Amino acid sequence: MDFSVPQETQLVLDTIRRFIKDELQPHEAEVEEVQYVRPELARELRDKAKALGLFAMGMPEDVGGGGLSAVDMCLCEEEFGFTKDALVRRAFGAIPGSLVNCVGEQRDKYLYPAVAGDINVALGMTEPNAGSDAAGIKTSARREGDDFVLNGTKHFISDADVADAIIVTAVTDPSKGAKGISAFLVDKNTPGFTLGRIQYMMGLRATNHSELVFDNVRLPKTQMLGPEGSGLYQALSTINKVRLGMVGGRSVGMARKLMQMSIEYANDRKQFGQKIGDFQMVQAMLADMATEIFAARMMVLNAAWETDQGMDPREKVSMVKYYASEMLGRVADKAVQIFGGMGYCREMPLEQLYRDARVYRIFDGASDIHRVIIARSLLKNGRQSL
């Protein structure tokens, strides 16, 4: 089995690494402080990324994207872990994968402009009473002639404040359960659609989340994305790649950054007349970091490789999501311990990274949910072939 990174992939990674260092990291302090990315800065970063072929890298080539494989995107996401999520979204794009289900005029209005970076499209699934239980949504779309009338509320919707359109899941046939959920493309200026308050979070500042309110929003059937009843399937069919990349790969990248900072500090900081890196307890924490990062990275790349081979490693993806996010939490905690009081101080970037790391154990299915998925698979299928 060849674990080497192809030369063309390495060139992409080197370009991303330079771009993050030169173009994104200088804006991190401002974005963290004001909690948004200035529109003019967002346009500038997007245009520079597009010029280098770094925009929409994970979208298929036949719709204008970079066409990178799952393995390649996981490696890219590792690099993204070295800067703020909000800057990554504005520079490299945050395009819902289910947009590929657009047909006819939908492609010209939503898909191609999103992949080109001309519009922003968000995904609206989560509701106050339906987080990990994606099939438990209450937002409804009632058929009236050739139209659908949308009513309900969403929350925690990433990028809704900058979106030109939102893919919204709604119940079209309550009798069919998960198969009675459909997806709709809703433009931001549609009558009856209101953007609620921005829900500021403990971490990931400037990756803003918002409430959405739909009050008798009338949509022609041409705004339905994909066949009726396929809304949940569309959303979940692309989520494995999201979990592998944006959670698995990104967790590895963030953990690598934390370890790098910890190594440098352990070599510089002196206590009791010697570098703290000479103390065995600090050495043990660094060794634990490196070992866990390596383990998570191999898990991510193995599951991504199986995805690229057309396999469906959903249990492995749950293992990746669970282990990589928990690993990041442990690495962040050890980094704060190594830095001591300075690690807890807002003057140091470590405090921000510690806050950012916490949510990875929650979104895209909390760790507890993924442990249940893994256990149920084992109980149903017996010993898993790994």
Overview of this structure, please?
By secondary structure, the chain is of the alpha+beta class. The chain folds into three domains: 7-93, Butyryl-Coa Dehydrogenase, subunit A, domain 1 (Orthogonal Bundle); 119-229, Butyryl-CoA Dehydrogenase, subunit A, domain 2 (Beta Barrel), CATH 2.40.110.10; 238-381, Butyryl-CoA Dehydrogenase, subunit A, domain 3. It is built from twelve helices and ten strands. The strands form three sheets. The chain has a four-stranded mixed sheet with strand order 1-4-5-8. The protein has a four-stranded antiparallel sheet with strand order 2-3-7-6, with no helix packed on it. A two-stranded antiparallel sheet has the order 9-10. 44% of the residues are buried. The model has no long low-confidence stretch (mean pLDDT 94).
